[in-house]
């Protein structure tokens, strides 16, 4: 459908799209990509969607950089590593340049977050008697949570029981 940008139908569609956007944003924060997809699925023309997103950004209702910062902090608090956070932000449609600063800040405390996640997992692995298997399971758990290899090595160094004893090795 070709709209006359000054026509009543065009203005009515813009109004409806803005109302839909505000309803979506009233439920939770969205990325520009998420909200655009919702508006497209609602049947709005691409031009209407583009104008609505621009208006929401102008009003400060959409801010991918702030969304990335808040969402990354939330994931970090849940025990996720940098790789997992980066992946989830990409899935949300946030551009890498919007997330670089946030991820750099989170990388600084990643070893501490990995240690906290490891403490949780080690309580579950308390019955495991073989230190090698315990270490392997913990490493898989941390890698699955998206922690970088450097953070996993810091965890292994932090817990002496994961490093074995000299009498465990045969000549």
Short descriptors:
171 residues, disordered C terminus, mainly alpha
Question: What would your notes on this structure say?
Answer:
The protein is mainly alpha-helical. The chain is 70% helix and 0% strand.
Alpha-beta classification: mainly alpha
Bulk shape: elongated
**Radius of gyration over all CA atoms, rounded:** 23 Å
Q: What is the helix fraction of residues, given as a range?
A: 55-70%
Strand share of the residues? under 5%
Largest sheet: none
Topology of this structure?
Blueprint: H1 8-27, H2 32-41, H3 46-58, H4 64-77, H5 82-91, H6 96-108, H7 110-124, H8 131-144, H9 149-158
Helix pairs in contact: 1-3, 2-3, 4-5, 4-6, 5-6, 7-8, 7-9
Q: What's the quick description here?
A:
Mean pLDDT is 89; it is low at 166-171. The chain has 171 residues and is mainly alpha-helical.
